[in-house]
Structure formats: structure tokens, C-alpha cells
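Q: What structure does this chain adopt?
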Amino acid sequence: MDEVVIRPPVDKELAIIQGIEVAAGQLFADSGMALVAEHDPFTIDELQGFVNRRMAWVAAPPVGSPVAYLVAEVIDGAGHVEQLTVHPDHGGRRLGVRLMDHFVGWCEGRGLPAVTLTTFAEVPWNRPYYERLGFRVLGDDEITPGLAAIRTYEAAIGLDAWPRVCMRRDLR
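A:
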């Protein structure tokens, strides 16, 4: 699948997005992080909320179902990647890069100064991947209130069993 389109998902694709998340969770299970794999994907209602706010995009062939997705918010005045996931069967094709580039363009078009995210510090397809995309790990003194609230939530659901970081990519 060389040709993909980045576009908003349609309602009937929300269950497919859930399936992408579940499939990607197997990578975590295979890496000794079963707790991460066991977390439920976003509910249909949660995904519908992202769609309704126009904060959801998929990578899909021109005719066919999505194979990757990105959902986002605006947190503390910056674009925030809530989730970026590529189905493992379609990894290594730069679909995550294409989705991130699309979101960066969306943020730039709205004058947002940066894109943020939280991720696992020691998982090769997390922090090191985002560093290659221009993100840097934030120091404790740089974590905004909204990012701190996200990290508190992540800790409450058990994600701090492995080191996590907040990251930022400045856009201007």
C-alpha cells in the first residue's frame, strides 16, 4: 500500500480504529508490557467526540479501511497528540510520520506554537521515534498544568509501571 490518504474518519470506521489499537497493543504484550496491551481502546463515544471536534485523522488507501490513526486535543495552547497508532501489519511505511506531519500542519495553520505528547521513555517505537520527528523530552519545570493532569491520569491507570515522559516539538 504505497498510496494513502490522510483524512477524517467516518462514523462506520470507529470500530476499525479500535481494532488498530488492539492490534498494536500486541507489540507491547510481546515486549513484556502486557498491562499496556490490556488497556481498552477508546470507546466509540470517545472516538466520536474526537471526530465531532474535528480532532481525528486516519491513514487509509484511497479505497479501503484505515490502517493508522491520530487523535488529538489542544492542551495549554499547544496541539497535543492523544494517540498515534499504526496497525502492526502496516508498520515501517512512514504512516505515523504522515499523520504527524498532517497534524503539525493543522497546528501551524492555527498558529499554535508547539505539539506535545506523552509516551514511554524506553520503548523504541515511542520516545526515540518521536525524537527523530523533532520532539524533545520536557524537563519537570516545563510541564504545563494540562500535561501534568494527563500524567496524573496515566499514573492512576497504571502506565507508570514503565518510565514515561512529556515531549514537545516547537513549531515557531
